Amino acid sequence: MRAAKSQSRSRASVSTDKSLEGSEEVSGVLAEAEENGGEEEAAFRRQYAEASVRNEDSAPDKDVCEEERAIGSAKGSDRSVAQKGFKGFFGSQSVAEGEEDDLAFPAVAAPPASETFRRRRLTFAMQGNIPPHTPLSQVQQRVFRSLEIGDVPKVPLPFREGQVGTFSCHGIEPSYLDTRPFVAKINQDRGICVYPFAGHERMALFAVFDGHGEQGDKVSEFCMYEIPRALEAHSSLKGGDDNMIHTLKESFLTVDSRLNLEVGIDAFFSGTTAVACLVKGKRLWVANAGDSRCTLATADPAGTKRLLARDLSTDQNPDSPGEMARIIKNGGYVSPSPEPGLSARVWLDPEYTQVGLAMARSIGDRAVKGVGVVAEPEVVEYSLAEDGSDKFLLLASDGVWEFISSQEAVDIVNAHLEKGVSAACQVLIEQAAGRWRDVEGDYRDDITALLIMLPLFK
């Protein structure tokens, strides 16, 4: 997992490898950065150079993807999101064996005829000319991107052992260099677990964000911090559980509005999904905007050992009747799914050439907010069964759900829980990555999963 750094938010960071400090590669990059961009640029380039050298000298011995554990804790007055507790962040740029850092080894641009390799799976597709818009000012741009590559130190989670597990894997895309078949993508997935939440010892927040577009990693990271902040600041949060649905909806909308004003993030053609689960005692609320998903695993009433999947969120596809009606009413256009398993898309024009967003709700994506794409989440409230039949919650980005059903995901996790909670997440992601390899070859989406064993609070 990752710990990223911004000027206004503090969090734990991953220490760099001091043994690399004197290497020629690092020294050369550092000298150039100091000459051209000052100390801040030098620090930024130093960590990338060290990571590149480390990766080149000793590639991780993982076949599918590099492990990224949840990391990040806040102490004392430095806690961000005004929290007196733990925040775990995950989702980063990491490089697996046979893959290369896309910043250290940029891929050559593909010829136009070859641009169809992943268009079927891209969340945001453009078939025609990009509609004009005014980018936000870059004067005060913040550094949101992860600077670490590979394994990071593990930080103890604030729950008892075996309670919460996480795993994230960056995507890959074809390289047009002869020396390598594919390159690593920057991981645009983000996730967070916050406990205790809003000062309540029996309340916790979990969320997964799947960014898309040119600045999707910045959008998802912005939301990773701002969703908890908006929730904690909402007056209704202290007004009782009856207002929780309203509070979650308003908080998502507040963050979407803040994003539009954020200097350094251009969310016109970039956005993120958001699936958040707020747990309070034995009640929980799941808010979802987009196609990330939250699934509950519960015991089979028939008494078998199999756990049954029950989705607590709905993938908000553009061709869902209610979503499509809203989009068309607002002047948008919805193209049907081109083939089974692929998403319908929202377009700005009847020729289906401009934008092509593969979801009906998201945070960001200002280009299509005028045609019925909304940030307001659907919220589901659920009370855990008194008999203890509810076993775990699984939140994951669509890198998991693209080729694995909710029931199959529950089966995979349940079959490997004896290895540990994070290990079960790892197996799920490895199997999802294998499906991507079998179907799409040298393209794979980012894949992230968060697993919470129930009950969270005794």
From TrEMBL:
Its main location: membrane. Residues 32-41 have a biased composition (Acidic residues). The keyword Nucleus does not apply. It is a peripheral membrane protein. It comes from the Eukaryota. Residues 42-65 have a biased composition (Basic and acidic residues). It is found in: Membrane. InterPro entries: PP2C (IPR015655), PP2C_BS (IPR000222), PPM-type-like_dom_sf (IPR036457), PPM-type_phosphatase-like_dom (IPR001932). Keywords: Hydrolase, Metal-binding, Protein phosphatase. Residues 1-15 have a biased composition (Low complexity). Residues 1-65 are annotated as: Disordered. GO terms for molecular function: metal ion binding; protein serine/threonine phosphatase activity. It holds the Pfam family PP2C. Residues 173-454 form the PPM-type phosphatase domain. GO terms for cellular component: membrane. Belongs to the PP2C family. PANTHER family: PROTEIN PHOSPHATASE. This is Protein phosphatase 2c containing protein. It comes from Nannochloropsis gaditana.
